[in-house]
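Narrative of accomplishments. A recurring question from our advisory board has been how the design workflow behaves on a single, concrete structure rather than in aggregate. To address it, we present the structure tokens for one chain from the evaluation set, followed by the sequence designed for it. No filtering or post-editing was applied between the two.
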């Protein structure tokens, strides 16, 4: 199955790249077709799909989980719970902890801090991406409903409608850094220990960018670049 997940992930990468290129073009041209909003929804959906497919690829790595461990993870009801179980089982496997709680006593202070840090990203960033992807997959592109579809979910409505292309790019980058850390944890404890700080520092920088980078400046830079390119073509 591994090669099929690799192929699916490669196609998603292409779709994300193509959609991103169209979104940048619309921003640079000041969205004359009023298509940017739809492209952002599509891009957001693809980011969520990428995360799900990347998890499946990770679960089928040859030197990672065995069949029983994989089945245990996939038996979890939601994708969020599958990510959580992946981290749990990976720590247990690498540090030979069968049943004890994963805390500073079983893992040691440093590894317990890493365990908590990964779960913090799962519940504060990845959770939102997964939930929004599920809403979009059900066609709720403007008004997301509650589970019984009897009312609008105000928090999800705000999350879907406040996204911009820059923030979505940052979120995709954040997920990729997160997956790099989890991949190392699953495959090699030595690599996990060696590269954790490098990967996680990049993740933290993306978190900072999400909070501090101005979308208006990003938008203005794309518009200016397009106008400069147009002027150069006229001069030729």
């Amino acid at each position: 199955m591994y090669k099929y997940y690799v192929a699916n992930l490669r196609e998603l990468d292409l779709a994300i790249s193509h959609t991103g290129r169209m979104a940048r073009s619309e921003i640079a041209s000041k969205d004359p077709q009023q298509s940017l909003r739809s492209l952002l929804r599509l891009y957001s959906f693809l980011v969520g799909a990428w995360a799900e497919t990347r998890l499946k690829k990770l679960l089928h790595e040859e030197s990672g989980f065995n069949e029983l461990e994989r089945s245990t993870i996939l038996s979890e009801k939601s994708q969020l719970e599958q990510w959580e179980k992946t981290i749990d089982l990976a720590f247990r496997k690498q540090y030979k902890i069968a049943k004890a709680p994963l805390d500073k006593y079983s893992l040691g202070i440093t590894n317990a801090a890493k365990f908590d840090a990964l779960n913090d990203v799962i519940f504060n960033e990845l959770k939102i991406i997964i939930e929004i992807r599920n809403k979009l997959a059900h066609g709720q592109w403007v008004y997301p409903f509650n589970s019984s579809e009897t009312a609008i979910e105000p928090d999800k409505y705000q999350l879907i409608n406040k996204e911009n292309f820059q923030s979505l790019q940052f979120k995709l980058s954040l997920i990729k850094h997160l997956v790099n850390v989890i991949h190392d944890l699953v495959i090699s404890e030595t690599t996990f220990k060696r590269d954790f700080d490098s990967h996680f520092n990049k993740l933290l920088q993306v978190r900072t960018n999400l909070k501090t980078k101005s979308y208006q400046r990003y938008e203005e830079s794309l518009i200016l670049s397009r106008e400069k390119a147009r002027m150069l073509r006229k001069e030729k």
